[in-house]
Amino acid sequence: LQRRRRQKLNDQLIDGLVTLANGMRAGLNLVQSMKLIETNAQPPISQEFGLMLREFEHGTSVDEIMRRASARIKLHHYKLLFAAMETARQRGGNLPETLDRLGESLREILRLEEKVKALTAENRMSARMMGAMPAVISGIYYMIDPGWVDALLDSQWGFLILLVALTFWIAGFLWIRKIMTFEI
Fold first, then answer.
1. Are 105 and 132 members of one domain?
2. Using one digit for the tens of pLDDT, what is the confidence trace for 133-148?
């Protein structure tokens, strides 16, 4: 559930950036633009910005609510957003332009992530098949000759061989998983 929420937050970020930038171009300040996201966007981004606005209404500075949101959300793209917003606010930069550039960069990052995901799909499937192969072959052997498995389980050496094979199988599965997991 938490993973789906984080993915949805990531998916909604670019639209949120557009809303913030357009609101500020229309003459709204940052807090008013954040209110647009709270009222017009779908959860969970509307909930997060609503929480930020409630903190602001209780007297917390905008920079502090962005730091708190960054720590709470714990997504790299949101950390970039809040850091860019804080920097533009403190240095007097053109925040709508900064948000537009950040949105373009995030679109490109997401495009590259999807491309890598598509290019590695075959390898991920091969890794899953290789990981499942020992269990499938053992199951086939058991269906053909159940005595084969009994021989492994009844003798000390057979049990030791089975334990070593299981250990290598798990280690290989974890190793393949580690190789296939990477961030862009």
1. no
2. 888 988 898 888 888 7
